[in-house]
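Data availability (excerpt). The following record was deposited with the supplementary files.
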Amino acid sequence: MFVRYRTGTAVLIIAGLLGGCAATGKSGAGAEPQSVFHCGQMEIRVTPGEEEGLLGIDYLDRRLLLKPSRSASGALYVAPGDDQTRFWNKGERATLTLRGETYPECLVPGAVEMPFEARGNEPFWRAVVSGNEFRLERPFEKDSVKRLEVEKVMADRHGREFLARGDELNVRLTVARQLCQDSMSGAQYPAQTRLTVNGQTYNGCGGDPQRLLRGAEWVVEDIAGGGIIDSSRVTIRFLSDNRVAGLGSCNRYTGSYQLTGEGIGFGAIAATRMACAPALMGQEARFLRILGEVSRVRIGPEGQLQLSTPSGATITAFQSTGDTP
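Predicted structure:
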């Protein structure tokens, strides 16, 4: 989860992992039970419940108590009286659903989603890890895909290293869970990556960029440099299936969004039709109009969400620290 952090600390973490100092450790099934997971931008803590057999989930300003339920694999816990709130866990991965909303795959610190894709520029390269398979488009050979077997995974709380061999290739892919910006498009990704092929090293980015947006309620603090009205609330939530929803100031709205390597775009937005004070209605109309024109998205140095239009108008939002019912 993005929090307000000091850049110096982040640099030390990256240097340690990308320098090849990741500690060997277990991952996946067979590892000790984990207590902290990141579900996109939201961090949750899993602890024993106050009563035997119950599981506690702490997130934002809330605590859930779930009871065990039958599952074909892994461990499933469900909220009493609410089967739309549940937590499923297997190894270093989990799925969290709150009141029917399923969050991005929950991962222990350092873990990566599967399949995991990384790529770099100048020269172009691409690597995809899926289970024990490592698919590689080598630099200067983009029309040729090599399929290798992952021989070893090294893990720590900051990332993963995948080692693969085959076809006279010795390959290492290092993944550091730290914000990365593509050197050509400017698009951001949740991980910095480093590919080493037979001793030659190339840098790049990787991971699912939706993890930078989803799992949080973003509370708008500024609309195109005009701030927002005191005591008003404007929010944005990026949901599954490329849906977006939130509060415009007075009315709730829903719509769609599309995230690409070139930026972001929002589809048609529908809103409820409650009437509020004219100032709130005006702020809402301005917010929704600008949102519909947005073409770029980035996470700023303080963890803020910045949505910008081609004309330079920007919506700035920070993550909410509480859960909205």
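Summary of structural features: DSSP finds two helices and 28 strands in the chain.
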